[in-house]
Batch of 4 targets.
Target 1
Amino acid sequence: METAEFLEILDREGRSLADAAEAAGTDAKVPTCPGWQVRDLLRHTGAVHHWAASYVAEQHPSPRPIEDGPELDGAEILAWYRDSHRHLMSTLAAAPRDITAWTFFPAPPHFPSPLAFWTRRQAHETAVHRYDAETARDSAPGGGEPAAGFTTALPVEFAVDGIDELLHGFHARPMSRVRTTGPRLLRVRATDADAVWTLRLSTEPPVVTPGDAEPADTELAGPAGQLYLALWNRIPVPQVTGDAALAELWREASAIG
């Protein structure tokens, strides 16, 4: 996928997140983020938008903390989130392709630029939180099933990319807690795309390779959109074969702090 495609998805996902949050009401609970209400979701996502935009706008070279969003509520926090999303969009759209800036894991060869990194990362950040907002909107009795609408609106290629980013990016870092006392193989398979990953688990961070050349102890499988949500611990894994303990390990240890 090209950076322009991620920017287009980021635009749509941010607008959809705000619309779902408005429909839910800012005091609605977010079932997929225990302890959060919609106002917390908006405050968090907007703050992340500002944090990401600052790296691109300032070409900032080193890590810095995410500042808390404002203590607003109701229409004010909704307006602030929409402004944060527009600010991120305009910053990314106006940035030169050759900027230099810090990124929190190396950009893969097909996304060598920090601009591409941040556009891609914010598209996935916003897509997952759009789902969270829709669970808040639809959690009342008689509400719809958010996962169905989410996955039908999400391009398969984008979901596959998000799985790849999660596995090759986040879980290749030293802070990944997905570890086992002895060597194990965990497979992840998108059943509606030519996309398979094998994770070598041990006392070290997972080592991810493409393909399924070796037998795995456990396979997590499903359509890419559903698998994307499952690996971010938003819904159950559609299909688990083999040792269910590794699926449980993923559920318990894979959260991104």
Target 2
Amino acid sequence: MSGATEPASSASDAPDGPDAESDTDTADTMRERAGENRLKLWLLLRANRVLVAAVLTLALFAAFVAAAAVFSPSLAEKVGSSDPIETLFASMITVIVTGATLVVTIGQLVLTQENGPLGDQQERMNDTLSVRSSVAELTGSPVPTDPATFLDAILRSASDRARSLRESVRERDADHSGSDRAALRSDVDEFAAEIAENADTVRGQLDGAEFGSFDVVFAALDFDYSPKIGRIERIVDDHGDALSDDERDLLAGLRESLSLFGPAREHVKTLYFQWALIDLSRLILYAAIPALVVAGLMLTVVDAGTFPGRTLGIDHVTLVVGAAFAVTLFPFTLFVSYVLRILTLAKRTLAIGPLVLRDSE
């Protein structure tokens, strides 16, 4: 996957010699490479982060109420004889304020990367324009400014070059025969079809995807460029004598397309990380305000007689304390939901270039 791909079995486990070729013949989609079920992958990456946080919050509420209902003496009796509510929510106020301050620090770290003297900003601009010039030369057209269309242009170039390579080999086979050419044609046909199919599939996923959502990055993860670069190197090594100069040039052009996709995807991923961390900081600050209000009300208003009675055998005060506790934890569950996605994505895109990392976790 990412030059990127998943982390990693140790190098000592990799086979040596010609059999190592099978190591890089991997599935294209991230789910197939990861070997994980759809539900887990959906929860870690695809699901709306606020929805994941809400589900975690409901789970914490249910766990709190279930535990409080099972243990004896009941929470209602404890509230009457001591003051666990004050102890709990006084601590939660401290946690919320500290967490919000930490979030501001995270936001500042993200923004720090965007600040700098004029010379540094000019260098960043020059580096960006240099890469855009390389992509424009590769695609033969102006480089799109939309991230999804930008990646699509590189994939289109890779797909077109793969098809051109296949046609070149087929046309030359009409004039040249032999076992070397037959083996070359077999390898190139399979490889070109794999690239074209994978690229066209990902381009379909990128169509209409908007940056800011996870759709652009998630689609890009399904183009596994790392083993494809390695496959080109093996084709050149295995069929060097059978390749014409034009076919070598086509392979070099295809390799360039694949190698440009790596940094392009990493750049889009980095921008998404910054975007997501800014969104996370803002959402936690929003959630911290009602959480503080709820914690303050529980601390100053609620006692054993505030919510008398029972429903389905559960004291009302237990339900209220559980709900308030869950609400005060919502900023934390937001943090967990976003960090789970960011860490999962970072783990699956550790390497850049033709390195294939794998781990089932």
Target 3
Amino acid sequence: MDSAAGTTTAAPLRIGLLGTGPWARNTQAPALAAHPGVELSGVWGRRAEAADTLATAHGTRAYTGEEGIDALLEASDAVAFALPPDVQAPLAVRAARAGRHILMDKPVATTVEGAVAVADAVAEAGVASIVFCTLRFAPETAAWIAEQAAVDGWFTARAQWLGSLYAEGSTSEYADSPWRREKGGLWDVGPHALSVLIPVLGDVEHLTAAPGPADTTHLILRHSSGASSTVTLGLSAPPGASGVEIEFRGEHGTASAPGWDGAETAFRGAVDALAETVRTGVPHACDARFGRHLTELLVAAETQARA
């Protein structure tokens, strides 16, 4: 009991982190360690040295190996994932079955079977889940998406998300990610674009995909509202051509997405959303079920583009 305020102070949500790569080091671990409502309960890594280094930097315990996963789950109320999607998926199932809430990175998995297994495990266990799609949780863009979803009469939309991760001269440490290099922009940044378009225009009822230069993919989508959208995704654009643009056009004019204040701030928003879902039991719109749907759309798009 807080004697000054006369109210009960809630215990912090104990969240363990699975993963030690650049995304864990640069975004997730700092956000979790600094969050006032969270206790970073530990860091698990496939390499003991990396787990020790990251855990020490944030004043928590390191775990490794199979037994380390079980120990971290035992020490946590929830776990966050900074792992390749097809490593993440079976571990998310394992965590859910252990009764732990899960904060996943996008995409949940790169196979429909993997994504379905995660969504089913979450539903069966009754745990909370969040899939971190940056623009759904960055304060600036989250508010903007909600505003556009409240407006009727959208006619069409355009989303372009082009990175230069694999452009000549790039020194980004994220370019070393094997899954990202194999799957390209469709899978890496496609979830971000879809997570904005779907809540405003409705579910995707028809999808057409075609390849562009390098890893670029072009999508044409027909939504349940009757509106259509076009999407261009890639990680190999020349630096001068890279950038993010999302625009809706309809009866009331044009609306363009604002900028946002970095991934760490957005990730803190995702942590807040997970905590709210844990507290209320009300599922978030960007949960494991939505993650499953994103994977279904991306598999369909990849199949068409490769054909």
Target 4
Amino acid sequence: MKPGAWAELLRISALFTVPGDALAGAAAAGLRPGRGTAYAVGASLCLYEAGMALNDWADRAEDAIDRPHRPIPSGRVTPRAALATAGALTAAGLALSARAGRPALAVATALAGTVWAYDLKLKHTPAGPAAMAAARALDLMLGATATGRAGPARPGEGHGTRRARHAWGAAALLATHTYAVTSVSRHETHGGSTAVPIAALAATVALGCAAVRSGGTSAPTATASAATAAASAVTAAASAVTAAGYLGTAAKPYLHAALNPSPALTQQAVGGGIRAMIPLQSALAARAGAPGTAAALLALAPLARTLARKVSPT
């Protein structure tokens, strides 16, 4: 069991799409990232990788036919080791979330249950995309809940524990994107679907528009400070740039898959949709008035793209 086989099993190139869930959740709730956010990021990474290992364990018979090169059917990773890894990572994720408080542990428990239900039962049912979308939404809410428990809100935003619920709007946008990507991924082995990539493309355009926040809802008044106006302008610019990055990452592969629904192009569309998580998370942070968080997240995109050339995220 070589490190390369584990990197492929755990799809480490997709790991860069995970920290942004917690950070976008904190931003959407109007909270400063803190120790609780760090625990949420660690828990998210563990639960995400648990899902990857469990996914290949559950699909080992199917992969033996359709993807014999995968680590388990090729014999590079044993089924027992993959299942044990999934269990250990799940336990680690729950332990980390518990450090952020009981509300965070409750969200993480729901997230872990959704991940295991998806991999073991729901993946090949009509409820599969919805389950995966729910998992991403819960992951974002984990960041909001953990941060709200451990840290204060930004000035004028109220107490963190009361503001975590305001992240549900951002969670819904991330869930919509996840639903679209998961729907396309169900055709990546055999291809053949034109309608699904078209629907995903339409959802991407709608999400890109929804993720943009204007500099304000009304013209600046005489009493508005220069600092407030400048902050509003920065927010508007960051929202536009990050939303454009999201559209550029996801829309083109979806269009190609719609025009030619071959397995190769469909898989590229799935990969593009996964990488687009990062600019979408960045756009959600910018939309919430956290351009610093948005910039930090956007810096992860080139790293994800580079690593994806070596280890497929799908």
